[in-house]
Design a protein that fits this description.
With 745 residues, the chain is mainly alpha-helical. The chain is 60% helix and 5% strand. A 5-stranded parallel β-sheet has the order 4-5-6-3-7, sandwiched between helices. A two-stranded antiparallel ribbon has the order 1-2. Strands 8-9 form a two-stranded antiparallel sheet.
Length: 745
C-alpha cells in the first residue's frame, strides 16, 4: 500500500490500534519500526488475499491537506458512534468523509459503506437507499427500517451518510434508531448542520488554510493547503502552470479572498486555462463583491454563492443558458438528453462543444465511463442549486421541465419494447442510470400540461422496468399516484393500461382480491373502446386472478378468450399466443389438471420459437412445475437448469425465489429431503426480503411435497437445514441451486 507522507500518522495509528501499541516504535529522525518477529503466513488454496468489504467511490483528483482534521476524526471515531462532518456546501465534507472511511476500513470487519443522498428528494426513499446499499429488499407489510435493522444486527461496520442536510427530519431518526439497536454500527454523516441526536460528535469542516496577507515568498505560500489545492487543480486545466515569483502574490490573494473554500478555489483554478492568475484576481473586485468590505458579517453560504456567481458571469450567454437548463436533470444526463432538453436547435456536436466549456470551467463533472455505454454529465450539488435559481430567474423553469418530461416520456416509450427483447440487459442498465430523472418527470406530471394523461403513459411504459428490477413497492407507488392525479380520464386506454400494470404488481405480491378488482375495470374499458391489445393484456392477468382465486370455470373461459384475442392481434405462434397458452396452463395447474397444464405450457414454449427474452425463464419454469406433478423429473431438471441460466444472463436473479422454490419441490420428488429444505429456506429468504407470499403459486402436488419434506426430516433436522440456507445471499442461493441441478441427473 502506498502511503502519502501527509497521511502516514493516520495509517500508523490505525496499525497500532489493530496490532497493539508496542508493535511499532518511533525512532527519532528515522521514522517507524515494526518490532514483532515475522513468520510465514498460511494462505488459502487460491493464494488470494480476501477483499475488504466496502463500496467507497474512488477520488479522481488528489486529496490535499486536512492532515490534522483526518487524524482527529480517526481518533474520535475510535470512541464515537456518530461523527457528523458539518460545514457549508463545497467545503470538502464528502472528500474528507471518504478519506476518513478509507483510512479506517481495517477497523470494521463487516465493511465500510457509502450512501450518497444528494440526488434524493423524497423522504421515504432514504431508508430504502440505505437498505439497497446492503442488498436489503422491502418485505411485505414490514417497514424497511425493521428489515434493515435485522440485517445489521450483529455486524461491525461503518455507514457513511453523505449530504443529509435536505433530509434531516428523516436521516436523524433513522441514524438514531440504527445506532440504538445495532451496537456494532458506527455512522459518519456529512451535513450543513448537525443531526441533533444524542451522542452525536460534531466535527466542523473548516476552509483550507490560507497564506497570511503579508506572505509573498514561495515557501510561505506553499505552506498553505489552499494554495497547494489551487496549484494542483490549475495544472489539471493547464499542465504547464507553475507557481513563481510573477504570480505568487496573485495566487495568495485569490485563495484568501475565496476564504480557502475548496469548491470556490477549484472553480477559480480552472480559469488558468484562459486567464492569468493576475486576471483572475482582478475579476474578484468586479465580479465577487461579496468578498469585499465587512466579510466577517457574511455567511459562508453567501461566500460560496459569490464564487458560483463569479464563475457563471464568466460564461458566454449561450453557456449560461445551457448551464441553467441542465439543472433540470436529476443526477445527470447523457449528451443526447442534454441536446434534446437544453439544446434548442443545436445538434449534438454544438452542444458537446458547449458542454466541454462547462467541464473546463469545473461546473459540469464527467462521470467515469468505464461501466457505462455513454458518458454522463452532472453538476456538483451546490452548482446545480445555483443553476436552478438562475433557471427560475430566467423564466424558463416550467418550459425546461416540460421538455424534460417530453424527453423522458419518449425515452421510456422507446425502452418499453426493448425490455421484452434481446437488449433487456442494456436497456435496464440505462434506465437504472436515469431512474432519478424518470421519477422527476413523473413528479412534474402533477403540474405539467396534460400531465394526468402523460403521467399514465410514462407509468405504463416503465411497467417492465419496475418488474424486471424487482422494484415492486416503488412501481406500485408510481401507478397509484398516476391514477390519483387530478384530470385523469376515467374511461381511457391510458387508465386501462395503468390499472393492468398495477394489477401485475399486486400479482407479484400475491394480492388476488386487488388484482380482480383492477382487471375487471380495465377489461370493461378495453371492451368499451374496442381495443384488442389492451383486452388481451388484461385478460391475461384476470385469468390468473380468477384461477388462483378458486373461480375455475370463469378462469378457463377467460384463458380461452385470451387465446382467441391473441390470435386476432398477433396470429398463431406469436409472443401473445405464447403468453395466452402459458396463462391457460397456469389455470389448469391451479385446478390440478397437470397433463393438460403441461400440454398448454409446451404449446406456449413452441409458440415462442427461438426468442430469448425476459419471458423465457417463466415459460421453462412453468413446464417444470407440470412435469414434477406428472413425475417427469428429468424433464423438470433440464428446463429448470436452463431457466436459472437465462435468469443469470438477463441479470434477473431477483426473481429467483419462484424458481428456487420449484427446484426445492423437484428435490423433494427425488427424495433429497435435506436439499429440499435448504432450497425452501433460501427461496423464503428472498421472498421475505422482496415482499410477497411464500407459497402462493403452490398447486396441490407442490404443497404435498413441501409438507412431506418437513414430516420426513422431522422438525429439528428440517429447521437446521432451512435456517442454514435462509442466511444465504441471493447469489449464493442461486449458485447452490444451479450446482444441485447440474449434479442431480
Amino acid at each position: 500500500m502506498v502511503v502519502e507522507e501527509n497521511n502516514l500518522q493516520v495509517q500508523v495509528s490505525t496499525l497500532r490500534k489493530l496490532l497493539g501499541p508496542r508493535t511499532i516504535t518511533t525512532i527519532p529522525g528515522r521514522g517507524y519500526q515494526f518490532t514483532l518477529g515475522v513468520d510465514t503466513a498460511v494462505v488459502d488454496a487460491s493464494g488470494m488475499t480476501p477483499r475488504l468489504k466496502q463500496n467507497l467511490p474512488g477520488l479522481l483528483t488528489t486529496f490535499i491537506g486536512r492532515d490534522r482534521e483526518l487524524a482527529e476524526c480517526a481518533q474520535r471515531l475510535e470512541t464515537a458512534r456518530l461523527l457528523t462532518l458539518t460545514g457549508i456546501g463545497g467545503c470538502g465534507k464528502t472528500r474528507l468523509a471518504l478519506r476518513l472511511a478509507e483510512a479506517v476500513i481495517p477497523s470494521f470487519p463487516d465493511g465500510v459503506w457509502f450512501v450518497d443522498l444528494a440526488a434524493i428528494a423524497e423522504a421515504e426513499r432514504v431508508a430504502l437507499s440505505v437498505a439497497t446499499i446492503f442488498g436489503v429488499h422491502e418485505e411485505s407489510n414490514t417497514p424497511v427500517e425493521d428489515t434493515l435493522e435485522r440485517h445489521l444486527a450483529g455486524k461491525e461496520l461503518l455507514l457513511v451518510l453523505d449530504n443529509c442536510e435536505h433530509l434531516l427530519d428523516v436521516c436523524a431518526p433513522l441514524a438514531e434508531r440504527l445506532l440504538l439497536r445495532t451496537p456494532g454500527l458506527k455512522v459518519v454523516a456529512t451535513s450543513r448542520e448537525g443531526l441533533g441526536i444524542a451522542g452525536e460528535n460534531l466535527s466542523p469542516v473548516r476552509p483550507l488554510s490560507v497564506p497570511p496577507a503579508n506572505a509573498h515568498d514561495l515557501e510561505a505560500l506553499l505552506a498553505s493547503d489552499a494554495v497547494r489545492l489551487f496549484i494542483d487543480r490549475a495544472r489539471l486545466a493547464a499542465p504547464q502552470f507553475e507557481l513563481d515569483a510573477g504570480n505568487a502574490t496573485a495566487v495568495g490573494e485569490i485563495c484568501r479572498r475565496l476564504d480557502g473554500i475548496p469548491l470556490a478555489i477549484e472553480l477559480a483554478a480552472a480559469r488558468v486555462k484562459l486567464l492569468s492568475a493576475e486576471q483572475i484576481r482582478a475579476r474578484l473586485n468586479d465580479r465577487f463583491r461579496l468578498l469585499t468590505g465587512t466579510t466577517r458579517m457574511l455567511s459562508r453560504q453567501q461566500t460560496l454563492h459569490a464564487a458560483l456567481q463569479w464563475s457563471y458571469q464568466n460564461l458566454t450567454p449561450n453557456e449560461q443558458q445551457l448551464l441553467r437548463r441542465l439543472s433540470v436533470f436529476a443526477d445527470g444526463c447523457t449528451l443526447e438528453a442534454a441536446a434534446a432538453v437544453a439544446g434548442d436547435d443545436r445538434d449534438d456536436v454544438a452542444v458537446l462543444e458547449a458542454l466541454e466549456r462547462l467541464v473546463d470551467h469545473a461546473l459540469i463533472v464527467v462521470d467515469d465511463m468505464l461501466a457505462a455505454d455513454a458518458a454522463r454529465y452532472r453538476m456538483l450539488e451546490t452548482v446545480r442549486q445555483f443553476a436552478q435559481e438562475r433557471l427560475q430567474d430566467s423564466g424558463e423553469g416550467d418550459a425546461m421541465r416540460e421538455r424534460h418530461l417530453a424527453h423522458f416520456l419518449a425515452y421510456a416509450k422507446t425502452a418499453a419494447p426493448a425490455l421484452l427483447g434481446d437488449d433487456v440487459v442494456q436497456w435496464s442498465a440505462r434506465l437504472d442510470a436515469e431512474q432519478s430523472n424518470l421519477l422527476a418527470a413523473h413528479a412534474w406530471c402533477s403540474a405539467a400540461v396534460d400531465g394526468a394523461n402523460r403521467g399514465m403513459e410514462l407509468a405504463t411504459a416503465l411497467r417492465n422496468y419496475w418488474l424486471n428490477r424487482g422494484l415492486f413497492s416503488l412501481g406500485r407507488q408510481v401507478y397509484e399516484e398516476a391514477l390519483d392525479r387530478p384530470g385523469v380520464e376515467p374511461r381511457s386506454l391510458q387508465r386501462a393500461g395503468v390499472l393492468f400494470s398495477l394489477a401485475q404488481f399486486h400479482y407479484h405480491q400475491w394480492q388476488i382480491r386487488e388484482m380482480r378488482a383492477l382487471t375487471e375495470e380495465a377489461i370493461a374499458i378495453a371492451r368499451e373502446l374496442d381495443d384488442d391489445t389492451w383486452l388481451f393484456r388484461c385478460l391475461l392477468v384476470s385469468a390468473l386472478a380468477l384461477g388462483w382465486g378458486g373461480e375455475s370455470a370463469q378462469a378457463l373461459a377467460c384463458a380461452e378468450e385470451c387465446i382467441a384475442v391473441a390470435r386476432r392481434i398477433g396470429g398463431q405462434d406469436s409472443a401473445a399466443d405464447s403468453a395466452a397458452f402459458s396463462v391457460k396452463g397456469e389455470v389448469l395447474r391451479a385446478q390440478g389438471r397437470f397433463a393438460d397444464a403441461l400440454e398448454a405450457q409446451e404449446a406456449a414454449l413452441r409458440a415462442r420459437g427461438k426468442r430469448r427474452d425476459v419471458n423465457l425463464p417463466a415459460r421453462l419454469r412453468d413446464v417444470a412445475r407440470a412435469a414434477i406433478a406428472l413425475g417427469d423429473l428429468e424433464r423438470a431438471r433440464e428446463t429448470l437448469t436452463q431457466a436459472m441460466r437465462v435468469l443469470s444472463e438477463l441479470r434477473m436473479r431477483h426473481y429467483a425465489s419462484w424458481y428456487i422454490q420449484v427446484v426445492s419441490r423437484l428435490a423433494a420428488a427425488c427424495t433429497e429431503w435435506n436439499v429440499a429444505a435448504r432450497l425452501q429456506g433460501a427461496a423464503d429468504a428472498i421472498i421475505d426480503k422482496r415482499g410477497g407470499v411464500r407459497h402462493g403459486q403452490d398447486d396441490e402436488i407442490s404443497a404435498e411435497l413441501r409438507e412431506r419434506t418437513k414430516t420426513t426430516l422431522g422438525a429439528q433436522a428440517y429447521a437446521k437445514a432451512y435456517d442454514d440456507a435462509y442466511g444465504l445471499t441471493l447469489d449464493q442461493a442461486c449458485d447452490e441451486t444451479v450446482g444441485w441441478l447440474e449434479a442431480a441427473r
